[in-house]
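_Backbone structure tokens_
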Amino acid sequence: MDNSYLLSSRPNNRKLIILCLSWPIHDVISPIHYRVVLQQNARFFDVEEKYKLLSGKTASLLEMEEEVIKVSKKVCFVSIGTVYPSLSRSQSPPRNSPPCFVLRLQLAASEDDLQGALSTFSLATRLERDLSSLHAVVMAMQDDENSASRDLQTVNARFLNVTETWQTGLASVTSDLASLKTESREAHTGATDRVNKAEQRARALDERLEELEDSTRRNTRALGRTEDEDAKRAQDQLDWNTKQLHKLEDQVRSLLRVDTELVAQLEEHIPRAQQCEAHLPAVEEAVRSILRLGGDLGTAERRLEELTLEAAWWSPAPLGGPGAGCKPAEGLGVRPNGETRPAPGQSGSTDRGCGTNRGTHLCHH
């Protein structure tokens, strides 16, 4: 299965992940949905019970109000009876009665009846205040009931919206699942085709590998015939390189001795340089000469490394190695007697340069 198939299957993987996540969400939302419905039903039942209780209380209050009205009417009749005791309830006092007669009737009323009438009036006013407060309580409870019903309607509307969105999401997920199934079938068929092609390529590679092994055996037999000659030439070249290496080592040792001598002389001249600042240019020139000597020593070391690499190149190598049957390295000439010699301007120039620098250092010191 190649990278193009993996890249094309990423949206399908996203759809599959969304589908896998939607089922647990559905399992979580369903109990919550039923629980919310039960809670709303319980709240609605409680509100209905409270409404019935309030309706009963309002009925009792209306009955009490009617009784208070009846009592107030009775109090009015009693007060009229105390003023006009000779009149019945259906009669009214005489219109043209003199004031003295009215005063006599009022004085004839007993003081106890007046006190009872006053207490009845105070009770009536108290009952009216209680009725007004009860009316206010009933109105507040009705407002609470209305707000609760509105909240219940909003909750039901929200629940319906959530249910509709969940149903639409479930429908889209099922459609995505169907499309994923078809795409997985197509991917499976494509993968089987690729596997078959890979098996055919593997068989072809096995055949080519067998042919390569046969050719390798033939080349090995051909190389075995020329191995001795190549080894002899490499041994001769290695001997000459060893001699040159010993010479370069001697030169390096001499340069190291000169370097140590120069370092010792430099250490001796440091106190003098500190004491005599006037001779600073001469000291700087000596330092430059020492640096030139260090550069010559570095070139000699690099030449030594090159010779070491050439010796390693011409050393006996395994069959088919890099040194078998190769020409001498660049920078080396072949002498008539079979030995190689260094190219012009390499080791001789190095020796001459070192000697010149050494003479320059001695003159400066």
User: Anything to note?
Assistant: The chain has two domains: 14-190, 230-364.
